[in-house]
Amino acid sequence: MTTNNPTILALDFDGVICDGLIEYFEVAWRTYCQIWLSPAIDTPPDDLALRFYRLRPVIETGWEMPVLIKALIDGFSDEKILQDWTTITSQILTADNLDAKEVAQKLDTLRDEWINADLDSWLNLHKFYPGVIEKLKMTVTSEVELYIITTKEGRFVHQLLQKQGVNLPTTAIFGKEVKRPKYETLRQLIEKSEHSSVSVWFVEDRLKTLQLIQKQSDLNHVQLFLADWGYNTQAERQTGNNDPRIKLISLSHFAHDFSKWI
After folding, report:
1. Strand, helix or coil for residue 193
2. 56 pLDDT exceeds 50?
3. With b meaning 16 or more CB within 10 Å and e meaning fewer, what string describes 56-87?
4. 210, 182 in Cβ contact below 8 A?
5. Is the pLDDT reported for residue 98 higher than 80?
6. In the 8-state DSSP scheme, what is residue 14?
């Protein structure tokens, strides 16, 4: 049963707290140019960024981002990408004799070079959803244990939150460096909690991540929320809304008292 307040609140970062679409597109465009354009051009087509933003939900791992740009440049329709993305990625990689690891390495290298050369400009491309920072600040000062579980590097999450005045200890941020599934991190948080009765709420924008948690029988008491403002599709939101274990939550409800979430 869901209680009125969690004792542990765990949140994804990108797509729940932070909107990283501008950074995603910029680093994806740079990677696309390095792989498929020689020499690179500075300015992408006018509508490319907006189409990329709309289709971001199809991407599961970072290497797919420049491949999405390649698909758009090659003329794949939005509908085709939404329906058959896995086939399209395989087709593009095969046609150019590439593999996912190679694309990922190029993207990671370009991102690291950018961060090392101008960290502030990179951080400034990350925006926060309305009302979220205020909600985090209130939660930090409450009795609720707040944690961030993300595939973004923890050090950057910490820096981005600090810039917004959210003083969350690094021990409460579980980033890419922990190298384990999110359900394993939730399990660890429950095990180390000092509360005699633990009520865990987890907010995520990826339906597949929530479905993986559902498969863990020892985590069947965790209340799962799908953020409808994040990187998900209408079909995924509908699936989540029809699942009794998952609560579809809006940004306006997220920013209010926990009683509004249920």
Report:
1. coil
2. yes
3. bbbbeebbbbbbbbbbbeeebeeeebeeebee
4. no
5. yes
6. B
Contact (CB, 8 A) for 231 and 14 = yes
Which tops the pLDDT comparison, 194 or 141?
141
Provide mean pLDDT across the span 39-47.
Answer: 80
Which helix (H) or strand (E) element contains residue 23?
Answer: helix 21-36
Query: Residues, the chain, total?
Result: 262
pLDDT range class, residue 259, cuts 50, 70, 90: confident
The single-letter DSSP state of residue 76 is -
The CA-based angle 80-89-235, given to 5 degrees, is 45
Q: Is the preceding peptide bond at 39 cis, omega within 30 degrees of 0? A: yes
Q: CA angle 250-254-260, nearest 5°? A: 90
CA atoms within 13 A on the CB side of 184: 7
Q: What is the pLDDT of residues 65-82, one digit of tens each?
A: 999 999 999 999 999 999
Distance between alpha carbon 18 and the CA centroid of its chain, in Å? 8
- 187/200 Cα distance (integer angstroms): 10
Query: In this structure, which amino acid lies at residue 19?
Result: D
